[in-house]
From TrEMBL:
The chain crosses the membrane at residues 303-330, 351-370, 390-409, 430-458, 464-484, 504-522, 528-546, 558-579. Residues 1-29 form the signal peptide. Its main location: membrane. One of its GO terms (biological process) is cell redox homeostasis. PANTHER family: SUPPRESSION OF COPPER SENSITIVITY PROTEIN (PTHR32234:SF3), THIOL:DISULFIDE INTERCHANGE PROTEIN DSBD (PTHR32234). This is Thiol:disulfide interchange protein. One of its GO terms (molecular function) is protein-disulfide reductase activity. Pfam families: DsbD_N, DsbD_TM, Thioredoxin_7. It is found in: Membrane.
Length: 706
């Protein structure tokens, strides 16, 4: 170990010596990469806001672009190398914070471990603007940057002088750079939120990192930011002990307090954490506890969590039946019970088939979530409605059902398996259950979110049981009607009233199709919505021609519908790719302005918490009925906005409509697999308060006035 330190010390002395010989004018850039064709790593300086507000903070990005085959270094470069050195020249009162580095990569050369970046990256630096500066005041920013550019056979010390000029203003982010800063922040390690513990024994160090056992690892690596705390080139052994990840490696010559590090997970993501000195349990074989009583306690705890989550899932599924997502479809099946002629046996058969369809879809969706998460993807409940193609397909299906209920055409020409809601039969009941479950999953209500949040951390078999419980809850009302003849007999007898009810049920189906189009409008451009309406009209024309042929008794009545359906579905598949939503969509901008809120950004969230700013953070999606109701009834109200403004509350919104891995990971850390999620961060509080899923205006105003 001492020999390795000596090698590194000699390397650093050589590098610093060479740096001191570089003339000050070498590789100079004025806030851009222009004129740097002769350097191995091009550099530039970018500000997130060209008009930062007085008394607030903005972010600077030192952008590094290595040429092919070259690399730069992390803040702790590894066995050899040199971290970037910053010398800032700032006006009086203007200060910068600690640079934030993206998750680094490993590069092993001749038994020397390097912590490097081989692709373009950005180092983010917070810039603090004093509150005494008046609007329009110029803020010149300059930094003298020294860094090392290396490849396997050579290293070149380089210098750059970067500068930019800001002026005090409203603090709005520059639209031209916002997407770049979003991308750069995605590359930063996520704060773990819980402190780790390390134990130093002899020449070894063991670190216990709080991390649920279900979190997937893929070639993990520990990057320690403290110099000489560990041997960067030493072998790292990873093991699991319950919900702790244990890392053991060769210790260095210092005992940092605290130890700062980043551990990489699957997909190149990383978790930043701090570890305090302490004692760790003795190592156990294969990373599993051998104490029988401890194992029994864990097993008992898992069973308790599973049972609680199962009952919550069943209760949540029952409540979904009154949601606009499910109620129209359930009404169709209740209507079909009223005209059954096969007696109790047929009713029970349909009820079981409907239940099988609902439970089967819930299990398949749950299995899909678990499989995708095991593969490293960040997905959550209702992930299928984050795919615009699914929305287009559901819109076509709902429109066809609505026109059938309205009497435009009849399903009599199809075989029994296609009669989803219009006619009875076990096959029809099964597919109606499939449809009900598929459109029910975006809804999230009381009991359900907690249950599904627990499910993703349970073993696979237990998790699938929770998903099956949700399906059972959705199907339970129809199952009860099918199995209790006394309740079924209270249904009205068949008669002309059924045709009137059938036509009336077309209205909520059309409303459901309209709601899906609105969701699609949040995912695609306006041209994409118009194109979707065109394929809907094409399908409607085919169904109309089918109805005409049916009423005239012509053969092959389904020909027009089949042809138009094939064309509509084929065109619908390509619509999302042809008409993606523009990043500067006026609709999105208007929504953000009306809410007077920030888009979710975990780094910004941490910054605001450090400033003791009261925060209301919520996560929503355009296809989430509960979310929309809460926003209209409690969040987007004048009384709530006035109370928040008076108390200086910052609102941060996470839009999960199209899916977002950062939001999904954040939801998972709060035991949620879907939206909504509402968090209140009181000034100075260590942890947020999780609010209920049904909000009231008084609940929100009481947060700041109570």
């Amino acid at each position: 170990m001492r020999g390795l330190v000596s090698v590194r010390l000699l390397a650093l002395i050589s590098v610093v010596s060479v740096l001191s010989l570089i003339p000050p004018g070498a590789a100079v850039a004025q806030g851009s990469a222009e004129g740097q064709s002769d350097v191995m790593i091009r550099t530039s300086l970018t500000a997130e806001s060209a008009r930062p507000a007085a008394g607030e903070q903005t972010t600077l990005a030192v952008v590094m672009q290595p040429q092919d085959g070259w690399h730069g270094y992390w803040k702790q470069p590894g066995s050899v190398g040199l971290a970037p050195q910053f010398d800032w020249q700032l006006p009086d009162g203007v200060t910068v914070g600690e640079p934030a580095y993206p998750v680094p990569e490993t590069l092993l050369i001749d038994d020397l471990m390097n912590h490097v970046y081989e692709h373009p990256y950005a180092i983010l630096v917070p810039l603090n603007v004093p509150d005494h500066l008046g609007e329009g005041t110029t803020i010149p920013i300059r930094v003298d940057l020294q860094y090392l550019a290396c490849r396997e056979d050579a290293c070149i010390p380089e210098r750059a002088t970067l500068s930019t000029q800001l002026s005090v203003g409203d603090g709005a982010a520059s639209p031209r750079h916002q997407s770049d800063f979003d991308h750069w922040r995605q590359a930063l390690p996520r704060p773990l939120g819980a402190r780790a513990t390390y134990e130093h024994t002899g020449d070894r160090i063991r670190i216990a990192i709080p991390l649920p056992a279900s979190v997937k690892l893929e070639q993990p690596h520990l990057f320690v930011a403290n110099d000489e705390a560990v041997d960067p080139a030493a072998r790292q052994n990873f093991s699991r002990q319950g919900d702790e990840l244990i890392v053991e490696t060769a210790a260095g010559e210092t005992l940092p307090q605290p130890l700062e590090a980043v551990v990489t997970l699957a997909g190149g993501t990383g978790l930043a954490f701090q570890a305090d000195a302490g004692s760790l349990p003795a190592p156990v074989a294969n990373g599993h506890a051998t104490n029988d009583s401890a194992e029994e306690k864990r097993t008992s705890g898992t069973v308790g969590v599973m049972l609680t989550a199962l009952f919550g899932a069943i209760a949540g599924g029952i409540l979904l039946n009154v949601m606009p997502c499910v109620f129209p479809i359930l009404s169709l099946k209740v209507l079909s019970l009223a005209r059954l002629s096969g007696g109790p046996r047929e009713a029970r058969r349909e009820a079981l088939a409907y239940t099988a369809g609902v439970v089967g879809v819930c299990i398949l969706l749950g299995a899909g979530i678990l499989a995708l998460r095991a593969a490293g993807a960040q997905v959550g409940w209702a992930f299928q409605l984050q795919e615009p193609r699914v929305i287009v397909g559901l819109t076509l299906l709902m429109t066809a059902i609505a026109f059938n209920l309205a009497g435009l055409f009849e399903l009599g020409g199809f075989n029994g398996g296609a009669q989803l809601a219009e006619k009875g039969g076990a096959t029809g009941a099964f597919w109606t259950g499939v449809l009900a479950a598929f459109v029910a999953t975006p809804c999230s209500g009381p009991f359900m979110a907690t249950a599904l949040g627990a499910a993703i951390w349970l073993p696979p078999l237990a998790a699938l049981t929770i998903f099956a419980g949700l399906g059972l809850g959705i199907a339970l009302p129809f199952l009860v009607l099918g199995y209790f003849p006394a309740l079924s007999r209270k249904l009205p007898r068949p008669g002309p009233w059924m045709q009137s009810v059938r036509h009336a049920l077309a209205i909520p189906m059309f409303v459901t199709a309209l709601a899906l189009l609105w969701v699609l409008g949040q995912q695609l451009s306006s041209d994409g919505v118009v194109a979707t309406l065109a394929v809907v009209m094409l399908l409607a024309a085919g169904l109309w021609l089918t109805g005409l042929r049916q009423r005239s008794g012509k053969r092959g009545s389904w020909g027009p519908s089949v042809c138009t359906a094939v064309v509509a579905l084929s065109a619908g598949w390509f619509i999302p790719a042809a008409f993606p939503q523009s990043s500067d969509s006026p609709l999105l901008g208007a929504a953000d302005e009306s809410r007077q809120s920030l888009s979710f950004d975990e780094t910004r969230l941490d910054e605001l918490r450090e400033q003791n700013t009261p925060l209301f953070v919520y996560f929503t999606a355009d296809w989430c009925v509960t979310c929309q109701v809460n926003e209209k009834s409690a969040i987007d109200r004048q009384t709530t906005r006035a109370a928040f403004q008076q108390a200086g509350v910052t609102t941060m919104v996470g839009d999960w409509t199209n899916g977002d891995p950062a939001i999904t990971a954040f939801l998972n850390r709060h035991d949620r697999t879907g939206v909504p999620l509402y968090l209140w961060y009181a000034p100075g509080a260590e942890k947020p308060t999780m609010l209920p899923q049904w909000l009231t205006p008084t609940l929100l105003t009481d947060l700041v006035t109570g």
